[in-house]
Design a protein that fits this description.
The structure holds 2 protein chains of 2 kinds. Chain A is of the alpha+beta class. Chain A is built from 8 helices and 21 strands. In chain B, strands 1-2 form a two-stranded antiparallel ribbon. Classes of the chains: A alpha+beta, B mainly alpha.
Chain lengths: 369, 295
Amino acid sequence: MPASVELRDVHKSYGQNEVIKGVSLRIEPGEFVVFVGPSGCGKSTLLRMIAGLEDITAGELRFDDDVVNDWDPARRNIGMVFQSYALYPHMTVEQNVGFGLKLAKRPRAELAERVEDALRVLQLTELRRHKPSELSGGQRQRVAIGRAIVRNPNVFLFDEPLSNLDASLRGQMRMEIGKLHQRLKNTVIYVTHDQVEAMTLADRIVVFEGGHIRQIGTPLELYERPANRFVASFIGTPTMGFLEGRVVRRSERGLEIALAVDGTQSTMLPGRWPTLATGAIVTLGIRPEHCLCRLAGGAVRTGTVVLVERLGADTFAFVEVAGAEAPVAVRLGPADRHIANGQEVGLSFDPANVLLFDGDGTTVFATEQ
Amino acid sequence: MPSERKSIPLRLALYALMVCTAVVFLFPFLFMIASSFKTNDQIFTDLESFRALLPVGPLTGENYARAFRLGHIGHYLFNSLLVTGITVSLGLVVNSLAAFALARIEWRGKQAVLTLLVILLVVPFEVISVPLMLLVASLPGLAIGADGIEITRSWLDTLYVQIVPFIANAFSIYLFYQFFRDIPKDLDEAAYVDGATPLQVYRHVIVPSSLPVFATVTILQGLAMWNQYLWPLITVPGEAARPLMVGMEQFFGARRTAWGEVMAYATIITVPILAAFIIFQRWFVRSVVGSGVKG
């Protein structure tokens, strides 16, 4: 039976160093939740705390109605897939998958049947007598997943399971994990730093930074309505472009923001913005697909193309704009794909699709159009 | 890594050097075996030429017959096999478990114990042999007497006085510790998630991944036990519990030493340890070179 997982004000410290700083979160039974965040944000540590491999310094961890803080990993009935696969090198595929059932002293016939089922689901039947050293990366990964599913655990934990695979295999395994979840309907907590994995697999994504949760939401919520500049920059490839500005006028029509230092270039954002006063320093966030880049004039800002990435289906130009921290990414339309490095271009965007961040980096949304 | 092809003269020189080194190491061994088939006079006659290393001239099996007849060799061999076998078997379990606790489990005071272990590594046995002897001499022990098991007033002159003090061995623990430390920690964690207890992790994950180091410790601790001389000499005055090594001294009497018999005796006591080495050699070499246990 899939279990719910609830974290209540959970903390983790190593001596004086606090790495998880009060995390509260509820994961519903059967939900696929992905933890994302930059390296060192505490996402893997939190997963290991849920697994029982790390102590919880303070707070409460519940599986359904049970507080499991002091339960050892075995009692929690979890299945875990490690980044390194962690297959027992001296055991065959079959023995690796059946090891947990053997420890649980399941009857031999039941053990054989359940191992057989797991091997079949993961297309490993032919490889049952092979040792891990004789398998490819993708096959090893499937054995690790087999080991996790064979015990029919309440919760599946995945710790960056695809990071050791090459790009094409990663895509294939991602799809297999997604299909497996649809079939088994278990609760899944999946840690990754790859936002493509997060966006494609998750029912909900939890974004971590510095031991805090920055936002919880569905992939589209996080993409379209990020809570702050950190989430906005973390979700989406290429990264959202940011332009600094200053509120110069509030009117019935919207908010006029000056973008250039000399105030000569400005844009009007529609809607009402009651929390922003005239003179407030703001940042505009623009997704690459909402930005236009033309050689001709009539643009909101001008800049220099520093890199063009031709990915086949899409072409992105990175435009260096005076005053912006990083080059702004622009997805080029078919007509603009001839744009090359070093060219001066004009940037423009649809004000309705721009995100606005206040001085603290928190997203400010218009109250009405 | 690209393999480097050495030139033929260089390879010849290397082989010649290796052969010379092998001969130097084989020299005493060949001398021992050849001499064990010769009479005392023949040994001294051959000593001035390479004949000393070869089984040539009038050969006899009498030395072996006398070694078995006079040397109680069967009895001493049994004692040595028992002492070595039990010490090594228990030592493998005790020392590897200690190393497992040090390398794979977090507990308060672990670092202090590790430091103590390293200190113990550099203390030679001779330094503690006399205080240890005084200790075992006053420890109450057990013996099988005419009326069954009896309590004795000392451990002296028993088999277990040659076993118990040598089961726990700092060097063996350190060898195990170094090997266990390099096994990926994820394996333990995967086993814990699979429902294993620490002892099951040791039994099902660590031990099967560490056969080379078990072979190494078996050879090194076995060799050390087999060659024990000082300790049984001072703690086992009687014949009942005497091991092979000490048994050799009976050939060095006040009269002329029978070197042929000494060599026959030495050959007999070398055979078991040589056999053990040949059996475990494959793992031993792998362990010494350092085996890859990467996942």
